Amino acid sequence: MEEAPKNLTEHSYQYIKQQMERNVLPPGSRLVNRKLASELGVSAIPVREAICRLASEGFVEHIQGSGAFVRQLSREDLDELYVLRDLLESFAASEAALYISRQQLEDLQFIIDEHREITATMVERNAKHTTPAQFNRWVDCETEFHEILVDASRNRLLKKVIQENRAITAVFYALRQLKHKIITPESAEETCAGKEQLLAALTKRDAELSRKIMSEQIQAGRRDVLAFMRKQERERNAS
Q1: Carries keyword DNA-binding (predicted)?
Q2: Of 58, 108, 111, 112, which has the maximum CB count within 10 A?
Q3: If you average pLDDT over residues 49-54, what whole number do you get?
Q4: CA 134 to CA 203: how far, in whole Å?
Q5: pLDDT per residue over 137-175, tens digit each?
Q6: How far apart are CA 226 and CA 84, in angstroms?
Q7: CA distances from 202 to 19, 141, 159, 183 (A)
Q8: Tell me: the pLDDT tens digits for 70-83?
Q9: Measuring CA to CA, how many Å separate 56 from each of 19, 53, 179, 185, 189?
């Protein structure tokens, strides 16, 4: 079988994944090779290879006789991913405290400022939660924040393990599948405060404190997300 050029497969992969993240292709959507190939202006080969890659990463499932479908990550999936994140990212934070650059510290501060702006807007408007646009912006910032920290650890093997196990991307992909109401002014303020504490520890080169704060942040996220998912399940069962 002819193989697709790597750049076309990567382009197809990124396009499909972005459509999934933006909920254009929500959980349960069937991935039709020809339709996606037409949208991308490529043959079906790179699309098929991209879908296989997404399936290997757990984002897509193949159902015999039916095709490939966007997979809904379960509460159990997320619980396990949060445990993995705590183990890996807490260590990454402690290493980052030793090696993080001034530019990376500034980049983290910029992201915190973005989060502060969203939080302030919610408070000013007396909103109970983020809008869909604010929610997507929030999750984009969260993803970037954690990726910068992992890069700052300067540990190539750690970065490879995190990428291969989807320890960051799968969690934030799953967050996009949840309702934007999950982020309230109270939870946003708690997240901002925790990130400011982490940034202060990183700036002081305090590895142990950075590890501790990162672990607390991840566990707080785990608690809130799983509680929100349980609430959603109860509401679906009651309807």
Answers
A1: yes
A2: 108
A3: 92
A4: 28
A5: 998 899 899 999 999 999 999 998 887 776 677 777 777
A6: 15
A7: 35, 18, 18, 26
A8: 988 788 888 988 99
A9: 18, 5, 26, 37, 36
Q: Cα separation of 27 and 229, whole Å?
A: 15
- Structural domains for the chain: 6-70 (1.10.10.10), 75-238 (1.20.120.530)
Output 174-178 pairs: Cβ under 8 A, ≥24 positions apart. 174/73, 174/77, 174/78, 174/81, 174/225, 175/139, 175/142, 175/225, 176/21, 176/22, 176/23, 176/136, 176/139, 177/23, 177/26, 177/27, 177/72, 177/73, 178/225, 178/228, 178/229, 178/232
Residue pair 55/62 in contact (Cβ under 8 Å)? The answer is yes
pLDDT more than 70, % of the chain: 96
